Amino acid sequence: MTDVAILPNLHGPGDLRGLTDAQLEQLAQEIRETIITTVATTGGHLGSSLGVVELTIALHRLLESPRDRIVWDTGHQAYPHKLLTGRFDTFGTLRQLGGVGGFPRRSESEHDVFDGGHAGTGLSIGVGLAAARDIRHSLERIAVVVGDAALMSGLSLEALNDIGHRQTDMLLVLNDNEMSISPTVGAMSRYLSQVKLSSTWQRSRSLWDRSTGSIPVMGGLALELTQRLRQSVVNFAQPGQLFEDLGITYIGLVPGHDIPTLEQTFRAAFALGGPVLVHVRTQKGRGYHPAERDQVAFHGAALPPIVDPRGLARSGVRSRPEPADAADGTGEPTGAGAAVGEPQAAAPTANYTHFFASELVELARADRRIVGITAGMPTGTGMNRLQAEFPERFIDVGIAEQHAVTLATGLAMGGLRPVVAIYSTFLQRAFDQTVHDVCQNDQPVVLAVDRAGLVGEDGTSHQGMFTLPVQRQLPNLVIASPRDEQELRALLRTALAQDHPFALHYPRDPGFGVPEREPVPLPIGRGEVLREGRDILFVGFGPIVMRAMEAADLLEAEGWSIGVINARFAKPLDRQLILDQARGRQLVVTFEESVVAGGFGSAVLEAFEEARFVDAAFRDVSVRIVGLPADRFVEHGSVSDLRRVLRLDPRGLAEQVRETLAMLRLARGSVTADEAGA
Asked: For labelling alongside 615, which of 307, 362, 510, 549 has CA 20 to 30 A away?
C-alpha cells in the first residue's frame, strides 16, 4: 500500500477510472477498513457490504453514475457504493440521527436511485427504469445488483418473468455469497460463459441459424435440432437454466473479488444487448475474519462485539389469459361484457371503469408520459382501450400485482406518469410495495383502485372493503373517490396534474347518468357542499354520497333539515369545511362503502376529537360512522342485495340515521337557524 490514502481523496466514481490495478486493490482495502471501523461503533449490515467491495468498484468504473443507474437490492449491501459516491466524510454518522442512512436514500445523493430496504424490489425498479428509458428513447444503462436470497422472493420472480418476456436491455448482477444458491459449478461453466460472451460466438450462432433455417423443406427441423443440441451442451455444465428458460442470458460463475475480470464481463454483457444475468460468486464478510467465519451473525444490523476492528484479512410472466368476456381476477369469466358480479342485462349507463378508461385514453393523447399498467386484467380494468391506441405505453405484467406497483415506481422515477389499474381486492397483495416503494419514495404513481366497495357475487375474497383503511395510514398518499362518473373524470385529471402518490377509488357500478361536465382538475383536499341543512350534517366519500342524498330526501320529508358534503378526499380531509358546516348541529353522519374501522368516518371523527379540545362548540356534536361492518367479511350476493342487507341503500341509510336520532333523543327542529349560524 502507498503512503497516500486513496478513498478520502475521491470526489466521485469518475475518479476510479484513472486508478491502476494496484491502487484499486489498495482502495478495496481502505473501503473495508472504513466499513469495519464505522460499523464497530454504529452497528449495521457488515457482511453483505464487505462482500461487494470489488463488485461495486467494477460497476462504478464501467458505468457513468448518475446518468447510468445502479439499483441495489437489498440496499444493505450499498455501503461501498456510499463511500465511492461522496459520503466518506460523513460515513461515521451511519445509521445515526441526521446521519448517513443504512440503505440507499435519494435525499443523500444523486447516485442513489431508489430508497430501498426490503428484499426483492430491485429488479422491478430496474425494469421500470429501463422501460422509461426505452419509451423516452434515451441511452442510459441500467444495472441491478440483487442478492441470492432476495432473488427468491415472489416479487423478484415476477420481475424476472417480465424481463425475459419483454427482453429488456439491462444487466442483472446476481451476488451469490452461497447463502441461498447451490455452488454446483466448475471450470466448464466458466469456459462456456466466456464462449457465450464472445462476439465470434454471437455472430456464428446467428449466421448458422439463418443459413440452416433457409434450407428448403428440412431447414426448420434442422434448425430446431441444432438449437436443442446447443442448449443441451450449455445446460449440462451451467446452473443458470432457469434464467435461460425465462429468456435471460446467463453468464457465470464469475469470481466476485477480481476487479479486472468483473469489468471485462460486465462490459461484454452490456454489449450483448437484451437482459443478461451475470452470476458473481462473492464471500460474505470478506476481509474480516470473524465475519468470514460466521456469516449469519455478522449479517447485521445488530452485530456481535467487534473487539478488533482492525483485525482485517489482508488481500484477499407470462401474462394471465383473459377471455373475451371480462375476467374476474381469477382468470374465470363473469359473463359477456359484465363487470365482476354484474347481471348480464345491459346496464342503464356505462360503468365507472368505462369512464375511467375513456378519460385516460383522452389524457394519454395529449401527454406522452402517461403509461398504463395492469396485472393480468386489461379488459376488466378498461386498460385494453389504452393498449389498443398506445400499445407502446401499455404494460400487462400478468398476475403480479407487487411487480406492477414497484414497476410503476421505477417508471415514475424515470420521468413518466404511470397509472396502475388494479382491483381493490388484488391491490391488497401489493401493500408493502405501496408503502415501501411508492409512498416512501413519494413518486407520482396513480393507483386506480377499481372495484372499490362491494363487488358482489364473488364474495368474501373479492369485496373491495379493506383498501381505504389500509391506505389512510400512508404518508404522501392522496386518497380520493368521486360521487359520480363525471367527477371521476375530473379526479383522474387531478391525480395526473400533481406530483405525489394518488389513490383513486371507484366502484364497478354503472354511472348515475348525470349530464356531462367539463373535467377540470380539482383542488387537492377540497370538498363541496351539495345542500345546506340546519339539523344534521351528512358527509360522504365516494358514490355513496348520491345514495346519502336520497336518504336525506327521505328524512327531509319527515321534517329534518339535512346538509350534505361530498368530501371527495379522504386524505387530505377537508377538515375546515366539515367543521364549519357542523357548527351548531348535534349530529354528523359519515358514509362510506368501506369497512368502518380506520376508514373515512374515522378520519372525520379524529378531526372532531381534535377540534373539541380548542372549541367548545363541537363538544356536543355526535358523530355516527356508517359503512361496512368491521371485523367480518361480506358474503356473496348481488350488489343491490348486499346493500339492502347491509343497509347501505338509500332506505337503509335513512333507517340507520333514524336509529341514531332516537338513541340521542334528538327532535326535529331542536336546532334553530340562529343557533346553526352561531
From this structure: 549
Domain topology for 357-505 = Rossmann fold (3.40.50)
* Whole-angstrom distance, CA of residue 440 vs CA of residue 461: 28
DSSP at 326:
P
C-alpha cell at 172: 442483472
The phi, psi pair for 100, rounded to 5°, reads: -70, 135
DSSP 309-340: TT-B-----PPPP--SSPB-SSS-B-STTPPT
Q: Which fold, 7-185+239-293? A: Rossmann fold (3.40.50)
Amino acid 388 reads A
In whole angstroms, how large is the CA radius of gyration of the chain?
Answer: 29
Is 429 annotated as catalytic?
yes
The topology under which CATH files domain 528-676 is Rossmann fold (3.40.50)
At residue 295, the pLDDT reads: 57
Q: How far apart (Å, rounded) are the C-alpha atoms in residues 58 and 221?
A: 43
Are the C-beta atoms of residues 508 and 339 closer than 8 Å to each other? yes
List 106, 205, 368, 429, catalytic entry: 429
C-alpha grid cell, residue 244: 435461460
- Find the catalytic residue in 108, 401, 485, 593: 401
Is 133 a catalytic site residue? no
168 DSSP β-pair partners: none
Tell me the residue type at 238: Q
DSSP letters along 607-625, please?
HHHHHHHH-GGGTT-EEEE
Q: How far is CA 404 from the centre of its chain?
A: 6
Question: How far, in whole angstroms, is CA 87 from its chain's centroid?
Answer: 28
Under 8 Å between Cβ of 298 and 47: yes
The answer to whether 7-185+239-293 and 357-505 have equal CATH topology is yes
Indicate which residue of 61, 95, 141, 284 is catalytic: 284
Q: What is the pLDDT of residue 349?
A: 80
Per residue in 625-676, pLDDT (tens digit) is 999 999 999 988 889 999 999 999 999 999 999 999 999 998 876 544 444 4
Q: Look at residues 540, 519, 523 and name the one whose alpha carbon lies nearest to residue 531.
A: 540
CA angle (662 as vertex; 660, 664 as ends), nearest 5: 70
Residue 86 CB burial class (10 angstroms; 0-12, 13-18, ≥19):
middle
SS (H, E, C) 474-524: CCCCEEECCCCHHHHHHHHHHHHCCCCCEEEECCCCECCCCCCCCCCCCCC
Q: What is the side-by-side order of every strand in the sheet holding 394-396?
A: 394-396, 370-374, 417-423, 446-450, 502-505, 478-480, 569-571
Strands 249-255 and 170-176: unpaired
353 HSE (CA, 13 A, CB side): 28
Q: Give the H or E element holding residue 217.
A: none
| 82 catalytic per annotation | no
- The pLDDT, as a whole number, for residue 41 is 87
Residue numbers of the chain with a pLDDT score lower than 70: 1-3, 178-239, 287-348, 669-678
Amino acid in the structure at residue 291: A
Domain spans in the chain, listed from the N-terminal domain onward: 7-185+239-293, 357-505, 528-676
